[in-house]
Design goal:
single chain; 242 residues; alpha/beta; Rossmann fold; SIR2/SIRT2 'Small Domain'; 2 domains; 40% helix; elongated; binds ligand BJW; binds zinc ion
Length: 242
Amino acid sequence: MPRDRERLAAREALARARRVVFFTGAGVSAESGLATFRDAGGLWEGVRPERVATPEAFAEDPAFVWRFYLARRAAAAATSPNPAHRAMAEYARSDHREVAVVTQNVDGLHQVAGSANVLELHGSLWRTRCEACGAVAEDRATSFSEVPPRCRCGGMLRPDIVWFGEALPPTVFQAASQAARRCEVCVVVGTSAVVYPAAGIPYEAARAGARILVVNAEETEHAREADWFLEGKAGEILPDFL
Ligand code: BJW
Ligand code: ZN
């Protein structure tokens, strides 16, 4: 389909849709100045994922892992949502739509932008979890007097983030699957689509009959399977589009 007709068809589908899922990844926050994982200059270029994003890495050197996440917290605290986050929040507020933002991001910028129904598949930078008693707490510190920080029970606190080899939070994942199966359009934004089971969500939507629109800076597996693919920056495409 020629590019203009492709844009038009996708735009019409979104204007008509009553139930929409936005499935997002690190590319959405790139224009807020936060590094993605797998792009040139991304986080995994500075440090191997198995050194900071696995339970084994945390067991071996919790202070090293915490320093990585404290730096991520500082970067996220210093930034704000960009036009892509805001366009998705604004779209949900108009016309009484049922919108879910299913995100792999841990930075909380969708919520700051005003999105109400945000399902965080990979946890949050802004929570800790106790290794001993399991207590989960909101925590926005960007430094601790003692690293790793300790729970009141004496146990070690870890970031409440889903690392490689760990299960996604079951209730969040179920809610995301359900939203995917119900939606008419699934908009996939700023993700390389290589990390499973999260990357399966748009396929679930497609199998249940949804149209898929991909907005991404490069072609991905999702883009190749999508009904529509708009190549470029989310912060430039989405505000015009939604
Ligand atoms: C722009 C842009 C702009 C840039 N505008 N676009 C099958 C095969 C092999 C392995 C597996 C498999 N199934 C599962 C696995 C294992 C593993 C996995 O998927 N590995 C693959 C990498 C091979 N998965 C897991 O381990 C998961 N758990 C699991 O499977 O558990 C099983 C289990 C069940 C029951 C009990 C116990 C266990 C957990 C995965 C957790 C991943 N966590 C991470 C890091 C922690 C969070 C953090 O520190 O922030 O989450 S990995 C990292 O990747 C992070 C992200 O959420 C995730 C996805 O990355 P994302 O968002 O797509 O970013 P990028 O950088 O990859 O892509 C950015 C894109 O944006 C690019 O395309 C750019 O072009 C684009 N872009 N600027 C638009 N301005
Ligand atoms: Zn505890």
